[in-house]
Structure formats: C-alpha cells, structure tokens
Specification:
0% strand; single chain; 7 helices; mainly alpha
Length: 198
C-alpha cells in the first residue's frame, strides 16, 4: 500500500519555487531601475516606441485569465467538472492571445530596426539601446513563463477530463493556478515599467 501524498509539502515546494522566480525577476527589475536612473530620458524615448494599446490589451487578457483560473479551482471544489473544463480552456486561450499579441509586437519592432545592437539603436542614444535590451530580455522571459503556464494548465485540463483531478485531488490544478497568478503578477510590474515609462 503506497504512502499518502503530503499535500502540504507539495504546496510548500511550489511556494519555494515561486519565490525563486520572484527573485529572478526582482533582480531584473533592480537592473532596470539602475539603468533607468542613469538614462531616464532615453527610457522615456524607448517607452514611446512601444504600443500601449497592445500592452493594455495583454494586461486585461492576463487579468481575466487569472480570474478564470481561480474560478476553475472553485468549480472543481464544488464538483462542477464541465465548468472547470470550460474555464481552463478559456484561460489557455487567453494565454494564446497574449503570445500572439507579443509575437506581432516583437515583429513590428524588429521590422523597424528596434532590437538590441541594431544599426538604428547603435547609432542612436546608448540608453535607448539598453532599454530595448532589457525589454526583449524581460518580456521574452515572461513570455516563456506564459508558455510554461499554458503547458501546466493544459496538463491540468487533461487530468480533469480524465477524472484524475477532482475536489479531493487538485494539487496539480492548484499549483498550476499559483504559477499562472505569478505570471500575471509579474506582468503587472512589466507593463508600467516599459509601456508607461515617462
């Protein structure tokens, strides 16, 4: 007979992992702050090159998806399996919308020569080059986390469909939800730092 799984240990392990992710992005935000202090005008110039409409849309998309992920956990606890499945599918779709928006946004910037060490940026202000370097590193790393979050939500969805996740066995879905909330929280900092910089 197998030993019972320690759900508390799983949750603590997930929180420790999320803490390490916060440290990673926190370090990048400190780096951003240091360069912003040195090149405030250049960062303002770089920020005006970004599409605030797409940035705002992505913010709304992630906020809504964070709500639907939380709602899916509540639904599975109530035994509403179909509702859980629908909410998870919608949340994953929100992730797709976010990444597609980011793809087109990056594509437009690269097309206009706004990428680190491009001729446009190298011959311009040094601070603008640094701004876009940080922009691509931080938003690219965040996009990778969105993709990983979508994979975790998809696995959770498959387990719900298979009946392996329910109201009494929801560690996978619960931890996937925590990860998704972290992705949302990080974007709440990324959005104003790059899109609303003055």
């Amino acid at each position: 007979m197998s030993a019972p799984i320690d759900r508390t240990g799983i949750k603590i392990g997930m929180w420790l992992f999320l803490y390490s992710e916060i440290i990673l992005f926190g370090g990048l935000f400190v780096l951003y702050a240091m360069y912003f202090h040195k090149y405030p005008e250049s960062f303002s110039v770089g920020g005006r090159e970004l599409n605030r409409i797409i940035g705002s849309l992505n913010t709304v998309v992630l906020l809504v998806s964070s709500f639907t992920v939380a709602a899916s956990i509540t639904a599975i606890q109530r035994g509403a399996r179909k509702q859980t499945i629908g909410l998870l599918i919608f949340s994953i779709f929100c992730g797709v919308i976010f990444l597609v928006n980011k793809y087109f946004e990056w594509g437009a910037k690269i097309h206009h020569g706004l990428y680190p060490n491009s001729e446009t940026l190298v011959t311009g202000e040094h601070g603008v080059n640094i701004f876009f370097g940080l922009y691509y590193v931080i938003t690219g790393l965040h996009g990778l986390h969105v993709f990983i979050g979508m994979v975790l939500l998809t696995i959770s969805l498959a387990l719900v469909v298979a009946g392996k996740v329910d109201g009494s066995r929801l560690s996978m879905l619960d931890n996937s939800g925590l990860y998704w909330h972290l992705v949302d929280l990080i974007w709440i900092f990324v959005f104003p730092l790059f899109y609303l910089v003055l």
